[in-house]
Amino acid sequence: METETQPTVATEPQTCLNLKPIAEGTNQLCEAIVGQKGFADLYKKIDAFINDEKLKYEYSMLNERGALLQQKQQAGAEISDEEIAGFEKLRDEFMAIPVATQFLEAQEEVQQVQDRIHQVIAKTFEVGRVPQSEDFDFCSDGFGSCGCE
Q: A Pfam family this protein belongs to (predicted)?
């Protein structure tokens, strides 16, 4: 006796939250970021890197070489002086390019903003309400308003 299987229909995952106000708040957050005085400068640094194919390739090669050396080290394999020197040469050449260093600085700033936003959102779920400054183990509200910046 064969059993018929019903085709599965892809459905949206069920959520307890209405995502529309979250999307609206996210748009407001993005507007607040874009409206910052320093945003245009930050964006220019990122855009200059993104539009430089050669530099992106060099960055990719540098990351791959670093990952390979890290894998060798974790596997207990010996890393030769030549391999280390080759990696350091690539890194030094890359870091000598102003667009590269400006991109890395911009990337770090973006990451800090993303991390802080994530910390506040995570704390919201942890405490079950909008977090207050005393809910954080770090700088006031998580955005450095205690003068620690």
A: Com_YlbF
Torsion of CA 99, 100, 105, 108, to 10 degrees: 130
Q: What angle do CA 34, 40, 41 make, to 5 degrees?
A: 135
Residue ranges and CATH numbers for the domains of the chain are 38-135 (1.20.1500)
Helix axes 98-127, 53-74, angle to 10 degrees: 60
How far apart CA 69 and CA 91 sit, in angstroms, is: 13
Q: What is the pTM of this model?
A: 0.75
pLDDT by 10-residue block (mean), the chain, 149 residues: 60 80 95 96 98 97 96 94 96 98 97 94 94 78 52
* Three-class DSSP category at 144: coil
Residue type, 25: G
Most distant pair of Cα atoms in the chain: their distance: 74
3-state secondary structure of 49: helix
Distance between CA atoms of residues 59 and 49, nearest Å: 10
Q: Tokens for 48?
A: 């200059």
